[in-house]
């Protein structure tokens, strides 16, 4: 992955080094400058400041008993808990996630912003490296095997960066060759207006690299035999700073947020006033958007004896990557893409990405409230995961927390506190009851021996 830049005066740089070892380089201005306040706090003490991996180490200056960085580059790991919080618990399989900094065509970014959010953004006002940079965060939940989810972790961010418009007709032609549902495919299946969007959110006008990158995943995986029998859901968050000069995502006053999504992983935008804006919806066969898309093939909808709906009697999700043998029957890799302008700066607290092992047992409001007062994004992610475990989730679980300019400033009452405590007490009672039931069975078996 190429080296890309996050700011000019604060010069935050993210460099992808390996699969998940990404780094942020912060070039600090003069000590005490207003624009440097947040960034210097991120790496202000010699005890916690990571050493640069390339270039000269910045000099340190002692001011008021604190060690500050003088102008120069300093690198901080992107997987530092102060930047992106991660918590994961493996059950019968493993979730995957990835962070990366993409270097995209600035003209394509300009067109995308204009079509999706009606924003006139001028990339020529920034240095080339700054105008090209976009932060990528992805979460992937595999099923039937790990072939597809591992491929996504390793390759999807690269496909976003390297997708070529000239290859799009070839990719869509491959999709049509799948036959069945895709026989009349023309590069778009989402019915306009079929999904309820939050205010200020629009369908991604130009779609950017999202659609061709997701289709390219299936095209590439078609060479892998395992990808016929297994698949993965995926949610991708793209963050582009629109500040002049550009600032890091965690201090930016103006951000373009894009979410590309298939399946039932979940992305939540959490505001400092306690509101939660869901940026995804589950792509289950009974969901309104999917029922509209698959209305001509609803014979594939089967409800089992437990009341769970399965498409073709096998799949919970009707949009996913992989599961190639089900593609002719309406299972599509086409992502639902939404964009939103975050221009309120400190009004946005953080973004949370969840696998369905968490979202199936916790409400959106509970997820947001659990992050209140957490000292770091990692602590917030751990709180979410621990409560999901208390609620009895037995699926694999992953939570990612991405701080924004309003991180740590959630106000208002914790509306779900009493409900969480009630649910916790109920689960304790259930565990005790289940323990007595198991003890009784064991005792009965012992008596018969």
What key attributes describe this structure?
5-stranded antiparallel β-sheet, 449 residues, alpha+beta, 7-stranded antiparallel β-sheet, disordered N terminus, single chain
Q: Which ranges are low-confidence, i.e. pLDDT below 50, for 5 or more consecutive residues?
A: 1-63, 68-75, 189-206
Q: Tell me what the CATH architecture of the largest domain is.
A: 4-Layer Sandwich
Give the CATH H-level superfamily of the largest domain: PPM-type phosphatase domain
Share of residues in strands: 25-35%
The averaged pLDDT comes out at 75
CATH class of the largest domain: Alpha Beta
Largest sheet: 7 strands, antiparallel
Number of helices: 11
Number of strands: 20
Please give the share of residues in helix.
25-40%
Q: Cα-atom Rg, whole angstroms?
A: 23 Å
Shape: globular
User: What is the count of distinct domains?
Assistant: 2
CATH topology of the largest domain: Phosphatase 2c, domain 1
Report the end-to-end length measured between terminal Cα atoms. 64 Å
Which structural class do you get from the secondary structure elements?
alpha+beta
Pfam families: PP2C (PF00481)
Biased composition (Low complexity): 39-54
Keywords: Hydrolase, Metal-binding, Protein phosphatase
Organism: Grifola frondosa (Maitake)
Descriptive account of the structure:
The N terminus is likely disordered. It is globular, with a radius of gyration of 23 Å. With 449 residues, the chain is of the alpha+beta class. The chain is 27% helix and 26% strand. The protein is built from eleven helices and 20 strands. The strands form five sheets. Strands 8, 9, 10, 11, 12, 17 and 18 form a seven-stranded antiparallel sheet that branches. The protein has a five-stranded antiparallel sheet with strand order 7-20-19-13-14. It folds into two domains: 75 residues, no CATH class; 290 residues, Phosphatase 2c, domain 1, CATH 3.60.40.10.
């Amino acid at each position: 992955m190429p080296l890309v830049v996050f700011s000019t005066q604060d010069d935050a740089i993210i460099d992808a080094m390996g699969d998940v070892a990404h780094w942020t380089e912060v070039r600090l201005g003069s000590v005490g400058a207003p624009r440097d306040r947040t960034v210097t706090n991120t790496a202000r003490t010699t005890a916690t400041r990571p050493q640069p991996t390339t270039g000269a180490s910045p000099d340190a200056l002692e001011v008021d008993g604190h060690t500050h960085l003088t102008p120069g580059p300093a690198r901080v790991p992107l997987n530092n808990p102060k930047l992106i919080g991660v918590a994961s618990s493996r059950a019968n399989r493993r979730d995957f996630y990835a962070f990366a900094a993409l270097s995209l065509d600035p003209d394509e970014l300009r067109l995308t912003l204009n079509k999706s959010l009606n924003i006139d953004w001028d990339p020529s006002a920034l240095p080339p490296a700054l105008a090209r940079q976009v932060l990528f965060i992805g979460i992937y939940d595999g099923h039937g095997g790990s072939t597809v989810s591992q491929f996504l972790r390793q390759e999807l961010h690269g496909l976003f960066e390297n997708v070529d418009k000239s290859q799009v007709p070839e990719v869509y032609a491959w999709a049509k060759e799948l036959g069945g549902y895709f026989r009349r495919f023309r590069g778009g299946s989402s019915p306009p207006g079929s999904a309820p969007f939050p205010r200020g959110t629009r369908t991604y006008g130009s779609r950017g690299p999202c659609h061709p990158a997701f289709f390219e995943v299936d095209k590439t995986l078609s060479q892998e035999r395992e990808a016929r029998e297994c698949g993965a859901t995926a949610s991708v968050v793209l963050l582009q700073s629109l500040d002049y000069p550009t600032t890091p995502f965690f201090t930016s006053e103006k951000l373009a947020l894009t979410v590309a999504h298939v399946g039932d992983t979940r992305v939540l935008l959490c505001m400092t006033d306690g509101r939660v804006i869901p940026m995804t919806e589950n792509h289950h066969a009974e969901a309104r958007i999917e029922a509209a898309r698959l209305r001509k093939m609803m014979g594939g909808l089967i409800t089992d004896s437990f009341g769970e709906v399965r498409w073709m009697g096998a799949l919970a999700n009707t949009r996913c990557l992989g599961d190639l043998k089900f593609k002719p029957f309406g299972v599509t890799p086409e992502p639902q893409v939404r964009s939103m302008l975050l221009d309120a700066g400190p009004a946005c607290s953080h973004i949370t990405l969840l696998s369905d092992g968490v979202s199936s047992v916790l409400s959106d409001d509970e997820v947001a409230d659990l992050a209140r007062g957490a000292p770091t994004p990692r602590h917030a992610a751990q709180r979410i995961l621990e409560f999901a475990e208390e609620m009895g989730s037995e699926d694999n679980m992953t939570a990612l927390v991405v701080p924004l300019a309003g991180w740590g400033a959630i106000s208002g009452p914790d509306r779900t506190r009493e409900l969480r405590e009630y649910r916790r007490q109920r689960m304790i009672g259930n565990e005790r009851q289940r323990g007595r039931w198991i003890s009784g069975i064991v005792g009965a078996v012992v008596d018969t021996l």
